[in-house]
Write a structure and sequence with these properties.
16% strand, 7-stranded mixed β-sheet, 41% helix, Rossmann fold, alpha/beta, 15 strands, binds pyridoxal-5'-phosphate
């Protein structure tokens, strides 16, 4: 074990392949179903809005997929990312545990999102696509895709959840700085947007609804536009695995191996990217790591949702997937961790929680900000509100070690910084944040709208 604080890899040590968990899943995933026929999707249907290289990655069984050279070149602007031992936090908590964190906030837009944005823009460009359409919640994903599209000379159309569009203008301006267009969702540019606006002209929007708009904009473009999703899909999780692959090398430099691996989970991409290489070590090489996904108590998909079939979007134009869901019509409260407000969860993450290989837990937003502020005071970085969920559970585990005297090794993913989220911190400091109980009746109502699926004979 070393006495270092930060573990840095050389550029030449950056992994050259992503890890594809399809190769090691305990059971294969159910295929996605067509939103209307409710039968397995055809490649033609998926190709109407998704670049074909990404569809091939979704079903590939190769354990490793090479990262194309032009993608690696751009990754080098911020990768390999640093890995820290949180010694000052350990001292503040008076814990015998060793706490480590991987820091993805050093990317140009301040989060893990460009790991997949750059890859998706690269494949789109290769296929002659002109513009990528997408959704964004608090704007992290929109800024990442806007940056990536600009680097590959592609147009970019971002549908941003209306409440964030109004309350968080700064990321919106970052998106336009990169040359992309951004629209408040629901918008009047799509049929699904107009439908929701007719029901409620002040609709706050939701990630699921912005997804519907992005897909429709691509499907009605005559093939010039394709849709790009920032989380949830197998290829997005795949591109994020560079985080965990680097972390494995850095843990080796530190001379330790984690007993507990933690990530926050919205659609599941930073969690999977960080954790899946550790899941592989658990499934294939007998490691005994506990792997924990943390979600908001206000949007408790994994801890209070059902493992069933549901549409991946609110407007029912996206495929139906087997996953944990709160019901596609569930509109979560406007909590500050905007990136975690999504009714579903990535099918891979859902299946591994369902099979017991991954644990899930939920934290109230007050607890997450308490943790984020304690972390900022000890380590200096002001974390993204989403990342505070991972920090909160890492700190709880470290405090339990203080009580039990155990010297566990805890590693979490710090998925981004919170520099554009200071209004959330301001509200917290002004005592305006409240504990928020998930609305059981709203979820019950939303669960009545999940589809009846007869495939595969269920
Ligand atoms: C910093 C940060 N962390 C986490 C998330 C949650 O997304 P995912 O679960 O796909 O990692 C987001 C989403 O916007 C984010 O911006």
């Amino acid at each position: 074990m070393s006495d270092q604080t930060k573990y840095l890899l050389e550029e030449r040590q950056m992994p050259t392949a992503w890890y594809n968990i399809n190769a090691d899943m305990p059971a294969p995933l159910m295929p996605p179903l067509h939103p209307e026929t409710k039968q397995p999707v055809t490649p033609e249907y998926l190709a109407s809005f998704t670049p074909t290289a990404l569809l091939a990655q979704d079903v590939s069984q190769e354990q490793h997929i090479e990262i194309p050279e032009p993608v690696r070149d751009i990754y080098k602007l911020w990768r390999p990312t640093p890995f820290f031992r949180a010694r000052r936090l350990e001292r503040a908590l008076r814990t015998p545990a060793h706490i480590y964190y991987k820091y993805e906030g050093v990317s140009p837009v301040g989060s893990h999102k460009p790991n997949t944005a750059v890859a998706q823009a690269f494949y789109a460009k290769q296929e002659g696509i002109k513009t990528l359409t997408t959704e964004t919640g608090a704007g992290q994903w929109g800024t990442a895709l806007a940056m990536a599209c600009n680097m590959f000379g592609l147009g970019c159309e971002v549908y941003m959840v209306r409440i964030s569009y109004q309350q968080k203008p700064y990321r919106r301006h970052v998106i336009t700085t990169y040359g992309a267009e951004v629209f408040a969702s629901p918008s009047d540019r799509t049929e699904v947007g107009r439908r929701f606006l007719a029901e409620d002209p002040d609709h706050p929007g939701s990630l699921g609804l912005a997804v519907s708009e992005g897909i429709e904009a691509a499907q009605t473009s005559g093939g010039t536009k394709k849709y790009s999703l920032g989380s949830f899909l197998p290829h997005v999780l795949l591109h994020q695995t560079i985080i965990g692959e680097e972390t494995l090398l850095q843990m080796e430099m530190a001379g330790e191996y984690p007993d507990i691996v933690i990530g926050c989970a919205g659609g599941g991409s930073n969690f999977a990217g960080f954790a899946f290489p550790f899941v592989r070590e658990k499934l294939k090489h007998g490691k005994h790591t506990r792997i924990i996904a943390v979600e908001p108590a206000a949007c408790p998909t994994l801890t209070k949702g059902s493992f069933t079939w549901d549409w991946a979007d609110a407007g029912c134009v996206a495929p139906i997937c087997q996953m944990y869901t709160l019901g596609h019509s569930f509109i979560p409260a406007t909590i500050h961790a905007g990136g975690l407000r999504y009714h579903g969860m990535a099918p891979h993450v859902s299946a591994l929680v369902h099979s017991g290989h991954i644990e899930a837990t939920a934290l109230d937003q007050l607890a997450t900000f308490e943790a984020g502020v304690a972390f900022a005071k000890a380590e200096g970085i002001v974390p993204a509100p989403e990342s505070n969920h991972a920090i909160g559970v890492a700190m709880n585990e470290a405090v339990q070690c203080r009580e039990s005297g155990e010297k566990k090794v805890i590693a979490f993913n710090l998925s981004g910084h919170g520099h554009f989220d200071m209004s959330a911190y301001a509200d917290y400091q002004a005592g305006k944040l409240e504990r928020y109980e998930y609305p059981a009746e709203a979820i019950e109502r939303a669960m009545q709208t999940v589809p009846e699926v007869t495939f595969p004979g269920t």
